[in-house]
Amino acid sequence: MVEANSMDRQRRLFLKRFGQFLLYRGLPLPSLLALSACDVGDEREVVRLEPTLDYYTPLYASPTPLPTTARFAAIADFGTGEEPERDVAELVKSWEVDFVVTAGDNNYFNGKASTIDENIGQFYHEYIYPYKGEYGRGADVNRFFPALGGHDWRQPGAQPHLDYFTLPGNGRYYDVRWGPAHIFILDSIEKEPDGVTSTSRQAQWLRATMGQSDAPWKVVVVHDPPYSSGETHSSQKHIQWPFKEWGASAVIAGNDHVYERVIVEELPYFVNGLGGGRIYDFDNDEIVEGSEVRFNGDYGAMLVEADADRLSFQFVTRAGEVVDDYGLEL
Question: Most Cβ neighbours (<10 Å): which of 11, 14, 188, 235?
Fold first, then answer.
């Protein structure tokens, strides 16, 4: 016999998950039923569904047809609550983007619940749904898709981050389809329960989900840079997965507070860590092979635009200087 309080928890969980279903259409019905039937204490096991079932699409005001273009900003290492973050946020807003992705370290320095709204919502609440903070009105649908960074994981289970956002899947790694762009948000921090190596549960999910996508452009967003000439963190071998073989068009990372574009086996890797945290130096004695552009002169963000035939990347400083302009064509 099921206890009454257990049934109440199941109902609450069902309502939460059903709300996520309305936001992120496309989750197969068996997965939704599995989520609704499970108890709060079993939530982690829900993530261990067959990877090919975990497919999400944002709900649009006019869901059919899907948009033919995507225009989004990418930031990382930004959540300080200070002036450089504000400047970059104003730059992002001036672009009138469809959505924002982050490559982690959203909430310095210790990922606390007491600082998360000041460090994120203060500047980006217009993109967050549901937004429950103190800085104004949020979005009508969620348009803010963060990856976890090491500072976000400093609290047990990264719980303040997971409580603050309503995200697809388990909230730690997930995918979002926006017109021609399919975004895959990964968790590269070693505390990730589903692993961070190329043979991990998380990697199996990425390979399966990316493999079934028919989007012309597939962009991976992750905190640790697979390739970086940054002096502080440099290249992270544990996240040097076979992204190109699995179908990726580009990889955007952070963690090193610099901007760099590296081409490895014809796949562009970006280090985009100038969102607001203290700027780092390059290791000029250890510049990685394939490094084509390096910059650490000011804060800024990436503007990414996609249509059916072209995917373009710009890095722009808070003063409006275009540092890098790179494109891919089918």
Answer: 188
